Amino acid sequence: MKWGVVRFPGSLDDNDALWALADVMGQEASMLWHKEASLRGAQCVLLPGGFSYGDYLRCGAIARFSPIMESVAKFAADGGLVIGTCNGFQVLCEAHLLPGALTRNRTLSFICERVNVRVENASTPFTRATHQGEVLRLPIKHGEGLYVAPETELRQMEERGQVILRYVDADGRESDAANPNGSMHAIAGVANDRFNVFGLMPHPEHAVEAMLGGTDGLKIFRSIVESAG
Amino acid sequence: MSQNPVSLSGDLRVDLAQARAHGLSPDEFRNIERILGRTPTFTELGVFSVMWSEHCSYKSSRKYLRTLPSRSELVVQGPGENAGAIDVGDGWIAVFKIESHNHPSYVEPYQGAATGVGGILRDIFTMGARPVASMDSLKFGSFDHPRTRYLLGGVVGGIGGYGNCVGVPTVAGEVMFDASYNGNILVNAFCLGLARTGELMSARASGVGNPVLYVGSATGRDGIHGASLLASAEFDAESESKRPTVQVGDPFTEKLLIEACLEAGKTGAIVAIQDMGAAGLTSSSSEMAARGGLGIDIDLDKVPLREQGLTPYEILLSESQERMLIVAQRGREAELQAIFEKWDLHGVVIGEVIADQRWRARWRGQVVADIPVGPLADEAPLYDRPAAPVAPRTPTPPSQHQPPAPPAALKALLENPNVASKRWVFRQYDSLVQGNTVAGPGGSDAAVLRLKHSKRAIALKVDSNPRACALDPYIGAVATVVEAARNVACTGARPAGITNCLNYGNPERPEIMWQFAEGVRGLGDAARALGAPVVSGNVSFYNETEGRAIPPTPTIAVVGIMADVSRQVVSHFKRAGDAILIVRTAEPALAGTEYAAMFGNGGGSLRPIDLDRESALLDGLVAGAELGLIRSAHDLAEGGLAVAMAEACFNPGGLLGAEVDLAAHGLTGIAELFGEGASTVVLSASTKDVDQVTQIFSSRGLECRSIGRVIAEPRLRLLPVIDEDVRGLQKTYEEALPGRLASHD
Hints:
The structure holds 2 protein chains of 2 kinds. By secondary structure, chain A is α/β, with parallel strands linked by helices. Chain A has helices at residues 14-24, 67-77, 87-94, 151-160, 217-228, and strands spanning 2-7, 28-33, 44-47, 81-85, 101-103, 111-119, 135-142, 146-148, 163-168, 187-191, 197-200. Chain A has one domain (2-228): Class I glutamine amidotransferase (GATase) domain (Rossmann fold), CATH 3.40.50. Chain A has a 9-stranded mixed beta sheet, sandwiched between helices. In chain A, strands 5-8 form a two-stranded antiparallel ribbon. In chain A, a hairpin with a 5-residue loop joins strand 10 and strand 11 (197-200). The longest helix of chain A has 12 residues, at 217-228. Chain B is of the alpha+beta class. Chain B is built from 25 helices and 28 strands. The A-B interface holds A 9-10, 12-13, 15-16, 19-20, 23, 49-51, 53-56, 109-113, 139, 141, 143, 203, 205-206, 209, 211-212 and B 157, 160-161, 164-167, 250-253, 255-256, 343-344, 426-438, 450, 452, 565-566.
């Protein structure tokens, strides 16, 4: 399938996403420049991690005004698949393509480590190659990943199955110690209510080769490929 | 053409007193007058003062640095450019360097450390290489010193804040706390970049009439005299007032500069490029001209400014960050400018290369500085300062207290911030971005990065050993080099190149000059013996406060090449039932060890290091790894055998144990358990491979003994002296640093 990876000024994991998709998975993937409007026929758009615009003002707050984001919003409105990892998740929240917001980690520091996340809804286009309750081991690396949303909205999201990934321990159990950044409901990834836009703080593109510490990220990308196919 | 430059209305009077205030000696001032045939203008005085500062001119150290080995068949670029480079195979060139940012980090820890990272990154991408890995060597004062916590938080925050935002992974490092750094911390930042063969760029100006482009942030008043007054002078009670000389970093602009400069480099329209680091526009322009044997003419009115009213003096001496100077092929400026515009940067033509070997600056239609290029750059003063040996330090008196029993000593060591896990630090650094990190911080004795489209990998590690250097600056330097090289070889990579950051006190004191000379001698001897040339480096003098110098601290980074990344060796045991072996070049000793520092039992002097045996050890480690015979390899460092064995049990996939009959091998003495010194490595191997592993080392003249086995039960049994639960030891090791930091809240 055709993938488009958006490059904002300050994107950092853009090349890594391209490597994961094209070199590791053999997908047709190309970079999309933020100043352009064309998505070049992508069937899934990936907003990568990084510090777009230096995270000045607020993470993702400036990137959402890039010309390409108008096209991404329209693409999403038409039902196109969009995935945002880390900074991409932040951009999607700022652009109101996803509910909630991401704020400073409760440790008040950047955290880089591998964490366990449990698949809470395995019937989405982004998780169909996993099974319900499966624990994935993925790296996080962010300073602002504490997910917040109004409690009423969270309840609705939980009921509709929009909470896709939750931080857990290695045995799949929720605990305060297993929640690295203090996210509400230990949320690591959410979808919109149409389930075609997905944002997550972990980096699936950094878990695609055993030599580099694991391959669970492939399950996310394979789900998308299956969904598009 | 040589017209006398004009003085400006706001200029201060130039005389000997003014020269002294600029850090120049009377001799140096007379020399300037002789070179110019007149008294310099105030602007020129400022220019000379930064270019002739210790920091920029290496005037006290050049004599010694010339003795270092800098060639091998792998060296593509030795000292002389912005960084050194070696050919690591399969079409990849590794470009690397380490540099200090000590004084700025003490004065303003977050920005000081951040701009240290930014500066070393620019030294790498200015060579045409994409920065792919950073490391840091940090030295703080005593953990309980009131300023340490603030400095640690600020420095680590600054390194992470900058490195994480530019997308360069921080993959290894070291952190040490010792009272001898209470008034002068060390922040040494290393960066390695990769370029394809033939892609390296140079900082040598050529082509008379070629335009000089300014790219990046506008110039402000920040950092003026950072190189001369901050980096090239001792500290005193007034030093905090120097905070305005510390620059402020903007990693986002740096990221844009990296992408834009690498993209611009591919056009072939760049003749020469250099970052505006220490001494800013002045050093970058004069050094590029000097390398090319040409001159340069700059119009200061064209320099982008952050605010109005900057004088030529300020524009030329500003150390505003994230600025690059480029000599472009004439007629291709627009092509380059279009690339910079794409990245929301601006490339502005501010001057041109001239045939006359003069460094000339104009402002409002008048020449304000006109100086021959040579004396400004590579013909700067060269000193042969007096050096006199220090009387050997009186050995630490034996402790009055009975040292604790071995189990208690092991726990005390694991709890010591110098030994304990540094996870609190490296968790704040992105070690994964760019997707090459096979072994990151905490995973093995050195970081390992795979090379894309290749079976090969590179391993890198930074080390220092001030305790040994304080006892003997020569042996200490040798020990530091062999330790960094051994850490690299433990992963299975062959050490191939060295970069160094030499941190010492005031070179105008003969005993410091002697320490420095001995350190460079040790570095050179070790580098020659190991066949790993020194391709780049940096000297940081004047690391003292109120007349008290830091211990000699040569920081050494070694880069090695691994032929096959699938043969990479980790530092922790992997499988129960495997044999545990030790191989060593000499008996361990307590002099200069962490144990001695804690329990005061480490008298005596360092033993000489046999470099042939060290070389044989490295060779054996690499050979064993390449044959796939070594399952794990861990070098003895702080805390000696006991700590190394405990760490080897901390398998991240599930704790393991070890059972060793120390008594049967005569290893129960305190020096055997906690001694350091050159050199011991703990290995594990499948029992069927033990004979082959032993043979690898014995054929190289080294004794390798099987002393025990890895067990599934998480229990560290170094019988009969230690029998401890590994879970408890790991808890101590992991919780020590965060626990002690929290208890200071």
